[in-house]
Specification:
Blueprint lengths: L2 E7 L7 E7 L5 H11 L4 E7 L3 H5 L17 H19 L4 E9 L1 H9 L8 E5 L8 H7 L8 E7 L13 H11 L6 E7 L7 H12 L2
Parallel strand pairs: 2-3, 2-4, 4-5, 5-6, 6-7
Antiparallel strand pairs: 1-3
Helix pairs in contact: 1-7
Length: 218
C-alpha cells in the first residue's frame, strides 16, 4: 500500500501555490524537501508518494524481465487511477484546494511514468523526468503514435553521463531516447531542458531530483 507525505514550504496557505507530486522509490522525502527548500525561494508544496510496487505500478505495459529481479507487469494505468483519484483528493484536502498548478515528478521508472501520464490525464501542467527509464521497450513508438491529453508548459529531462555505458542492448538506448524526447516536445512549443549529470543511474539521486524541481519552478 502506498504511503504519502506532504511537505509545505508555505507562508500563506490561503493563496494558490504550485504543488509538486513526487513518486519516490523510498522514504527520502525529508532530505529531498530540505534540499529543495534551501534552493527555492517561492512557496511550494511537495507531496511524496512511496512504498509502491515500483516495477508493477509504474510500467506502462508488460515486458520480459531485464534481469531476474524485475517485475514489469504493466500496472501504470491502474496506479494512474489511484494517483488521480484518492491520492489527489488527499492532496487537495491537505492544501484546501489552493493549487496553482500540479507538477508530476519522478526518477528512473517514475520519470517514465510521469511522462506517460500526459497521455492519460490532463491534470499535470509540468513534468520532471530525472534519469527516466526511457530505455523501456516500445515507449518511443508509443509517444510517436499518440497525442498528449495535455500539452505541458515545461518538461525537464536529465541523465547521468555514464547511464548508457552498459552492455545490455535494451538499457543502453536510454541516452539516445532521452535526447530524442527532449527535442521531440519542442514541436509542441513546450519549454524543455536536458541536463547531463555526472555518474551512473544510481549516483547522486536526491540532488538530481532537486535540480529538476528547481528548474521546473522557475
Amino acid at each position: 500500500m502506498y504511503k504519502l507525505k506532504i511537505y509545505k514550504n508555505v507562508k500563506y496557505i490561503s493563496r494558490k501555490i504550485p504543488v509538486l507530486i513526487l513518486i519516490n522509490y523510498d522514504d527520502t522525502g525529508d532530505e529531498i524537501f530540505e534540499k529543495a527548500r534551501k534552493k527555492i525561494k517561492q512557496d511550494f508544496v511537495l507531496a511524496v508518494i512511496y512504498n509502491i510496487n515500483w516495477d508493477k505500478d509504474l510500467s506502462p505495459w508488460k515486458i520480459e524481465k531485464i534481469n531476474k529481479y524485475d517485475n514489469f507487469e504493466g500496472g501504470a494505468d491502474n496506479f494512474s487511477r489511484i494517483l488521480n483519484g484518492e491520492i489527489l483528493e488527499k492532496i487537495r484536502k491537505e492544501t484546501d484546494n489552493n493549487i496553482k498548478e500540479l507538477i508530476l515528478c519522478g526518477y528512473s521508472l517514475a520519470g517514465l511514468f510521469s511522462l506517460y501520464e500526459i497521455y492519460k490525464v490532463g491534470n499535470f501542467s509540468k513534468i520532471v523526468c530525472a534519469s527516466a527509464s526511457f530505455w523501456y521497450p516500445n515507449f518511443i513508438d508509443f509517444i510517436k503514435q499518440h497525442e498528449p491529453v495535455i500539452i505541458p508548459k515545461k518538461i525537464y529531462f536529465s541523465l547521468g553521463n555514464k547511464e548508457s555505458n552498459v552492455k545490455n542492448e535494451i538499457l543502453n538506448k536510454v541516452e539516445e531516447n532521452t535526447i530524442f524526447l527532449s527535442d521531440y516536445y519542442k514541436k509542441f512549443n513546450i519549454e524543455t531542458k536536458y541536463d547531463i549529470n555526472e555518474g551512473n543511474h544510481f549516483y547522486d539521486v536526491t540532488n538530481r531530483i532537486v535540480k529538476g524541481i528547481e528548474w521546473i519552478l522557475k
